[in-house]
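dumping this here so i dont lose it again. seq + smiles for zinc ion
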Amino acid sequence: MPELPEVESLVHFLRERAVGRTILGVDVVAIQALKTFDPPVTALGGLTVTGVTRHGKFLDLDCDGLHLVIHLARAGWLRWREDLSGAKPVRPGKGPLAVRVRLAHDDEGLAPGFELTEAGTQKRLAAYVTKNPDDVPGVAALGPDPLDESFTVDALKRIVGGNRTQIKGLLRDQKIIAGIGNAYSDEVLHAAKMSPFKIAATLTDAQIADLHEAIVATLREAVERAHGLAAKDLKAEKKSGLRVHNRAGQPCDVCGDTIREVSFADSALQYCPTCQTGGKPLADRRLSRLLK
Ligand SMILES: [Zn+2]
């Protein structure tokens, strides 16, 4: 799943390639992906892409004041196409293609564009056409952006204070902090040497400062690694840069202990016992059930 660093990189990627170009048309292939009907998606045709920004994990293309807001969800991705002029018309219901944005021809006669694709059977990718990105419920509800300068140690202190949820869940909650998902919350907690099950409200001032440092440093490093990469290379880069996420069974880079996993109904978290939980493995209910 693309999280803040990958979406940030897509923003830069699209700024270089799409800004200044006129939209020829937007083809919605997966009808459920389009969450708005007024203004219609056809209203984007003929407009020029004037800016690209990010709100948490949402991508926002400003097209002469009308916005195409995109959430790639868990299995969605953006694929840049150098030339769509020969692309076949798309038929709904076949394959991973959800939305295709066709841009005007350039000097060389190529008609570039990009496609939003979504793998798997759970279709969560979402596109919105709106005059105001804040009208998108998920955008309006976002908490502070961890790379914004207003996200200080004191701001994090206010967020965790009195919050009785586990820190892993808190970090992933977009309404609390925007942009961090399952992968980077694992990475942040490993960097902060903190158990994912720790209750937020029990953090000391020193631990909050460490957590803040881990959040900002982890995301900044990932943004830097992803910077300048083509959209198609981002997934591999994200994977290679992760220290604990999806690395169960492998040795920890920091201490050499074996990275462990806790499974839930539809996700899993990974952590290093020596770095994060005083050497003690966390209870994994699925595993205990299997062992019975
Ligand atoms: Zn370790």
